Amino acid sequence: MAVTIKDVAKQANVSPATVSRVIADNPRISVKTKVKVREVMKELGYYPNFQARNLVVKNSRTLGVIMENSAALAFQNPFFPEVLRGISTRAHESQYGLYLSTGATQEEIYEEVIEMVQGRRVDGIVLLYSKIGDPVMEYLCQSGLPFAVVGRPYKNPCSVTYVDNDNINTAKETVEYLIGLGHRQIAFVGGATDFVVSLDRLEGYKQALNKHGILFDVAYTVNQEFMQGDKSEAIRRLMALELPPTAIVTHDDMVAYEVIGYLEDLKIQVPEDVSIIGFNNHMISKHLKPPLSTVDISIYDLGLHAAELVVEKITDESVPPKQVVVPSRLIERGSCRRL
């Protein structure tokens, strides 16, 4: 015979309404009562019918997660599984499920977000990127649905809830680390120029050069658009400069792996001929030969805090926009050397 709410209420010596409020995680119910009721639920083997409850209270207990492109492509980058691990940890603690975007193009993702919001498929959304002129973020700002962004919004950041690293200062400190090793010809291989994180890291690169009296030279910069097509040719041109770089900062560890491969084809050795450093501290980076120096941006914590901010806003709509800065740290390994 199936266990009911009344059975749980009787065993816990509370009313059925109190059990329902515990299931809904009502903040007015004391922690002591929640613990007692949940222990009884576990003891009796009672599992709430969340679908039925959600129809009554008109919410889904689901968080939408929007990636910059299709899941098939996104999961090729280790950033996304790790940030999702952080999101799912907080979602699980708050008894929320996840709804991942599956659109393969910007247009499909935009339409999918509209369906999520208007169809009430989700109670809140975590947007895993920030780019210039993004229609998805513009729509979310107008929709009234609670959302948080992993990344600093390009416009009006104080009016949007987001979590990010201090990418400008982190990039600046990374370049200064290389300058401290004696490098003056330092190249920057960045990401797509419409992503805010790419712009911030390029800005940090420029600030470090300026601080140390090194003139910024666009010839030492390569972005994702410039690398379209024959990427190896872009690196060949970089290394063929009259004064080739002795160090390279890359936007991401994944980019660093590619650059190292192109350098090997050119018979250029890391770190004997050129030092290289990345961002994100992917697990494989420490296993390369030589191990890759990188900046650990605390990807898991970015996801954890983003989900936390969304759930907080869902619970209390009066909470003002918040901005959380997650610390990052440089990890020195064998891919950089002193001149």
* Helical amount: 40-55%
Element-level helix/strand string: HHHHEHHEHEHEEHEHEHEHEEHEE
Low-confidence stretches: none
Helix/strand class: alpha/beta
Distance between the first and last residues' Cα: 76 Å
Number of strands: 12
The value of Rg in angstroms is 24 Å
What portion of residues belong to β-strands?
A: 5-15%
Average pLDDT works out at: 89
Helix run count? 13
The coarse overall form would be elongated
Q: In this structure, how is the largest beta sheet organized?
A: 6 strands, parallel
As laid out across the biggest beta sheet, the strand order is 2-1-3-4-5-11
Structure in words:
By secondary structure, this protein is an alpha/beta fold. Helices cover 44% and strands 13% of the residues. The chain contains 13 helices and twelve strands. The strands form two sheets. A six-stranded parallel beta sheet has the order 2-1-3-4-5-11, with helices on both faces. A six-stranded mixed beta sheet has the order 7-6-8-9-10-12, sandwiched between helices. Strand 3, helix 8 (135-143) and strand 4 (147-150) form a beta-alpha-beta unit. The longest helix has 17 residues, at 299-315. It is elongated and about 80 Å long. The model has no long low-confidence stretch (mean pLDDT 89).
